[in-house]
Structures are given as C-alpha cells and as structure tokens.
Amino acid sequence: MKTVYYNGEIVTMCGSGDMVQAVMTEDGKILKIGTVDEMKKEEGSCTWVDLQGKAMLPGFIDPHSHFISYATSLMQADLNGAESIEEIRRRIQEFIKANDVKPGEWVKARGYDHNFLQGRRHPSMEELNEMSPDHPLVIQHQSGHVGLMNAEGLKKLGITMETAKESEGMIGRNETGLTGYLEESAFINNVQKIPMETQEQFETAMGKAQKKYLSYGITTMQEGMVMEVMLPFMKYAAETDFLKMDYVAYLDFHEREKLVPEFKNHMLVYKNHFKIGGYKVFLDGSPQSKTAWVRIPYEGTDELGYPILKNDIVENACEISVQDGVQLLAHCNGDAACQQFIDAYRRVSEKTDVKSADIRPVLVHAQLLTKDQLKEVKELHMFPSFFVGHVFYWGDIHLENLGCRRAKEISPLKTAADMQIRFSLHTDAPVTEPDQMHTVWCAVNRLTKKGVSLGAKECITAYQALRGITIDAAYQYHEEKEKGTIEPGKRADLVILDKNPLKTDLGEIRNIKVLETIKDGVSVYRHP
Ligand SMILES: [Zn+2]
Ligand SMILES: [Zn+2]
C-alpha cells in the first residue's frame, strides 16, 4: 500500500533548505519525493495523509545513549534537577505512593547532584531516614560514582561502623556513626547486593522506555555498553518482537569473548530491529567531577583527572576492532583521553589497512577535543559524537572547573563544521533525557542553566545541528545509504513536528513538539 504525505513542510535534509511538496512511501521505504502533481500520476491506490502545514523530517537517530539504564531509571525515583533536600524528600515520598512500594521493600532513587542543592551538601543520615522511614533507601548521585543509604538500607546490607572501617572505597562516618554516604567502590559494590527487579518488571520498564524514545521522534537508538549482567534484557530485545525501532548495541570490549557468541546472528546485521555495532571502552571520567583526563590542570589545582586504561590496552582495542571489522566507541571527555584514543588508532593505522576496514571509531562525548586534535580526527577518519547538552546542564560548573577560556571551547561544533568534519549529537540518556530537540536547541544557543552564553562562537545553525541527529548520525552507524534523509530508496523512518525547526526562533526550538513518529512506514507514536 502506498502512502503520500503532503501539505506540510517536508525537510529532506539532503541540503540546506531542501524541501519537497510530497513524499510517497511503500513497504517501509521511501518510493518517491516531489510535487503533489507528480504523486497523482502514480498508478494504483494511495492513502493520502494531509500534514496540515506541520513539519516532516527524517526520523531522529540517537548516536549514543544507554537504553537499558534509561529503562532502569524509570523504576527509580527521579531526583534530577532537585534544588533542595526537602524536594528530594517530597519526590521520594511521591514515588513510594505512586508505585505502591510495600514497607520493607527497597526504594531506589537517582540523579541528585549536591552541587545544585542549597548549601551544596549531601543529605544527612537523619534527613535520609525521614525520607523513607519504612523502606530501605538507596540514592545514586548524578555522577553514578557516589550515593547514599538510610539506616534501614545500611542495616539490610550489613554495613556497620566496624565493617565500614575495612571497606574498599569510602563509607562516611562521623562521631555519631555512619553518615549514609558511600563513595566509589564502596557504593558500586554495595549497590550490586541490592536485589534486582524481576525480569517481568524490567520488560515493563523497557516498554515504557521505548515509548519515551519514540515520543522524542527517535527511530534508531543505542545501547552504549552491554555488560554480561544485561544479557537477559538484551536477549529479550534481540529475540522477540519487542522492538518498534532499530536498536544498535555495543559490547563491553573486556567482556567481548563471553558476549559475542551470544549474538552470532546479530553481528552488524539487524534481526528483529536489533544489531551489534561493535565494542565500547571507557578512557576517562567527566569534567564536572574533575575526573575527565585533561592536558592542562583543572582551574586553581594541579589535578589532571586520570586515564582508565593503559595505552597498550587502548591500542589493542583499536587493533581487535579493525581485525573484527566492527566499530569501536570510546568514552573520552578530556583532551588527554581523546589524544590517547587518537594516538592508539594512529599506531594501528600505521601497521594495518584501517582505510578499507573503515570502522569509523567514535570519540564519545569529546567535550574537550581541541582544534589540533580535530585535524587528526579528520585525517584518521575518526568520528566525534558530541554531548553538547553539557553546555546547558553543567556549563556553570565547567566555568568554575575549567576556567572561562576552556569552558567556552567545550564541544567545538562550529570549529568541526568549518573543517568539514561530520559529527553527531547525543544525549547520553539516562544522564539527560533522550530529547533530541533539546540537544539541537543547546547546539544553536549554547546557554547554561543560569542563562549564561557559553562559547557563542561555537554555535552552529539549526540545519547543521539537525544533521547531527539525522544524516550524520546515520553515517556514524554506517547507515547513511539507508537512513538520515528523505530520499527515494531509504527507509520510511519519519517524524512529524508541530513546527519546522529551520523556521523557528532559535530560542524556541526546545519547545517544538513531536506529533508522530513513523518507523519503516508504520506509525509507532502519536502525540496524545
Ligand atoms: Zn560516557
Ligand atoms: Zn554513555
């Protein structure tokens, strides 16, 4: 059955300002674009869909996020953006009520950041106990590396003043006892002892998460790091008819020998909308917690952050990825971490034919990537995926941590665009919402939460930003021949927006609504 979409602002993303009157789709693909008259000449019956002046674009492509973590986050109280301890308490109590959590069952919460709380401190033990008097409580900090537990939670896990002394990482203590604060391995190891949700609860959460992604106009999404513990959920996605959109997963490089055999039928090919795109490594932390590995010390300190992997391991990851013909994603925020990745890939390129392997290694986040490094990135055919939302969410902290000059230069989108370097723009959900229009808004406006303009010189146009979530994100996935523009022969992955982002005031772009999402010609989301 043919469908014709007409009477809207149809932005093809084939070139700046390229629009057509109508698009015809059939069997999940785009058959034809052109004028309404041309569509009328087509033989056979057609369904005509009147766009009523709304905008149609290629479906959005998520170049980096963590779908399973996002689904997990939906089973936890969301503390993102909380500005006071009282607000945290209120949100946790609302969560307990809304989800009918029985007394004695764990309550999990995530996303608070003490930097944004009045007094810039973590809640005390007394405050934690008041938040959920009848439930063991665990709260994960926004950074993921530290967290809090109330007295009931600590008791359930057998953490006492005595065991705290012996613990790895750091368990907070003062003269009155445990403070509820747990840092690094003390937090990470203990959180793993908390009972997981059931498979059924996970599947329900995955369903909700998928709906959310679709509501943001996304038709291809990512699993940024598959670990062995996630296997049951990945199998559910890969082997059932769960997925309504394409899902590309990257395996933890260090666990690849265990994981690759599990996905023999999905290596680099979609089956049930699921494919394995390659491997993933972490090279450093994040600039807001001063763990990103930088070449120049953080403002007013002699700290440089630190590397996670040794040079030879990074080189080995590059080499094996090239050998296996799969893509390598490396989380690198600081310029020193970016350089480690570039140098490792360069060494591999000197001994193997990386050109024909064409694995398009991705610098994920690349926040402090500099102009001299962009030259190397271009020369080596590497691919930066920028996390430009940081300008908004943490820009005010970057100004303090990095100093004005460096903070203004984070996510150098304009510099990259001027050098004709393709790049994508990601949300790193659940670190931020998988809201692609918000990312576009960040890229064109570069305003912090406090409204400070941060590096206006690196602002790009709305068209350039849209490329980062459509055609250039498709290129990152080696799918530019299939997706990313509205052209005959490509998949009918489309999104309908209430306004054309190319004709909207730059400041208003984040308010644009997704009205409908279409995957392979089928409507998979409609705005209620
Ligand atoms: Zn990352
Ligand atoms: Zn990530």
Summary tags:
528 residues, alpha/beta, Diaminopimelate Epimerase, Chain A, domain 1, TIM Barrel, eight-stranded mixed beta sheet, eight-stranded parallel beta sheet, 22 strands, 33% helix, 23% strand, globular, binds zinc ion, Metal-dep_hydrolase_composite, YtcJ-like, Amidohydrolase, Amidohydro_3
Structural summary, described in words:
The structure is a single chain. With 528 residues, this protein is α/β, with parallel strands linked by helices. Helices cover 33% and strands 23% of the residues. Among the domains are: 76-191, Diaminopimelate Epimerase, Chain A, domain 1; 283-460, Metal-dependent hydrolases (TIM Barrel, Alpha-Beta Barrel), CATH 3.20.20.140. The strands form three sheets. Strands 1, 2, 3, 4, 5, 20, 21 and 22 form an eight-stranded mixed beta sheet that branches. α11 crosses α12 (335-351). The radius of gyration is 24 Å and the shape is globular. It starts with a strand and ends with a strand. The mean pLDDT is 96. Bound molecules: zinc ion (ZN) (2 copies). One zinc ion (ZN) binds at residues 64, 66, 224, 428.
